[in-house]
Amino acid sequence: MAMTLPSLASPPAFIFSLFRRPTPNSSTTSETTTSIHCSASPSQPMDHPHSKKRVAVCGGGVIGVCTAYFLAKKGAAVTLIEKSSVACAASGKAGGFLALDWCDGGALSSLARASFNLHRSLSEELDGPEKYGYRPLTTLSLTVTESQTSTSPSRGSNSVLPSWVDGPAKSPRTIGSSETTAQVHPQLFTKTLLNKAVNDYGVEVVIGKVERVGGVEGGRVDAVVVEGGRVIEADAVVLALGPWSGKFEMLSSIFRVHGLKAHSIVVEPKEGAAITPHALFLSYYPAQGGKPLDPEVYPRPTGEVYLCGMSSEQEVPDNPEEISGDPASIQVLKRVARTVSSHLGEGEAQVKTEQACFLPCTDDSVPVIGEIPGAKGCYVATGHSCWGILNGPATGAALAELVIDGHASIVDLSRFSPARFVQRRKV
Ligand SMILES: Cc1cc2nc3c(=O)[nH]c(=O)nc-3n(C[C@H](O)[C@H](O)[C@H](O)COP(=O)(O)OP(=O)(O)OC[C@H]3O[C@@H](n4cnc5c(N)ncnc54)[C@H](O)[C@@H]3O)c2cc1C
């Protein structure tokens, strides 16, 4: 991703083609019955039996929750600590698009393939289609030029375009099949998985801000300290703080994690049944000219349609609940919606949600997963950028193996080790 850093003193200049997911070369999503039992009271010592490894997982996004789930399933006594609410940030506001082979040939290849398959098996275990809208998708790329709103799509007899895409679409191409692309509702997925971890494997959830990890100076972590002074004793600690990793001194002293703010809307068309399971990756030429934008459109099994894009590098606010969308970016997404399909325009659809959140990005665009150099027993998992919902399960499963068994077999984690930043500094 080529980025220009906007001046923080002035309104951000939107970088129109940043939210580019690498495309391949070229239910009823009912409200989950999740009830997650949280404790926010001042601390008592943990009552987990000491024969079990006690692990504190910090951060209740998809990465922290997947890690907590797989650790607890392997027999660890897990406490998940989230400062605001579970899946309140990107993990609740993402598209939830999954792809088997779009990361092939890069550092993420084996992580993505393992994760795609884990999503499939988790969906069977957790009733994914019903609980969190898991379903296979057909995925298309197409070009849309806003100024040509009166033109019908170029729909030859063999066109791959579904009938609801009735705007000025050109060059439609299938880039993912129902074997290779799928989706989940990310917030419902994260909450359903945590609910399972709480109810079946005894994960405890604590709401509180983790301020520091204890015991590092002594050579081995022994606790995390939560705002207000609560001490949660632990034999191992996992830091899964998403874009807030960059604000956690223990991590920011080793590598940089920056936040890329991206926007999304959810629209509810009157005729939801007309919207087929086709995800759209657009090259979108705005009426006023300039570079094409790259918004993404994901219909959901409920008939709702999620659209996202419009990203720019910005300072991540401390409080995830304070993140809101910039009106100009939201307007662009509404224009995209009505240009692509008459079913998604004003009068035919209601805009249900307007929101923004931050992608956690590293300088080398590769996630950081592994033990932190110089902090025995302390692990990190962050930097998943635009693929965190996809890569959550294999990240969590591999990290659980690393913490409990001392090595990961489901995915080779060496490419993701935080030690790479220390080695680079020495050169
Ligand atoms: C618009 C958009 C669309 C996306 N679409 C997709 C998609 O279709 N497919 C896909 O695979 N990925 C997608 N992504 C990417 C995905 O959402 C992220 O990679 C993923 O959610 C990151 O998860 P996380 O757990 O690392 O971070 P987050 O979801 O940001 O969670 C971090 C959590 O840590 C908590 N926290 C922070 N500091 C502390 C502290 N000190 N103590 C306790 N808790 C703390 C926060 O409150 C937060 O809940 C999208 C992202 C965006 C922005």
Automatic annotation (TrEMBL):
<feature type="compositionally biased region" description="Polar residues">
    <location>
        <begin position="144"/>
        <end position="161"/>
    </location>
</feature>
<protein>
    <recommendedName>
        <fullName>FAD dependent oxidoreductase domain-containing protein</fullName>
    </recommendedName>
</protein>
<feature type="region of interest" description="Disordered">
    <location>
        <begin position="144"/>
        <end position="179"/>
    </location>
</feature>
<dbReference type="InterPro" id="IPR006076">
    <property type="entry name" value="FAD-dep_OxRdtase"/>
</dbReference>
<feature type="domain" description="FAD dependent oxidoreductase">
    <location>
        <begin position="54"/>
        <end position="402"/>
    </location>
</feature>
<feature type="region of interest" description="Disordered">
    <location>
        <begin position="25"/>
        <end position="49"/>
    </location>
</feature>
<feature type="compositionally biased region" description="Low complexity">
    <location>
        <begin position="26"/>
        <end position="35"/>
    </location>
</feature>
<dbReference type="Pfam" id="PF01266">
    <property type="entry name" value="DAO"/>
</dbReference>
<dbReference type="InterPro" id="IPR036188">
    <property type="entry name" value="FAD/NAD-bd_sf"/>
</dbReference>
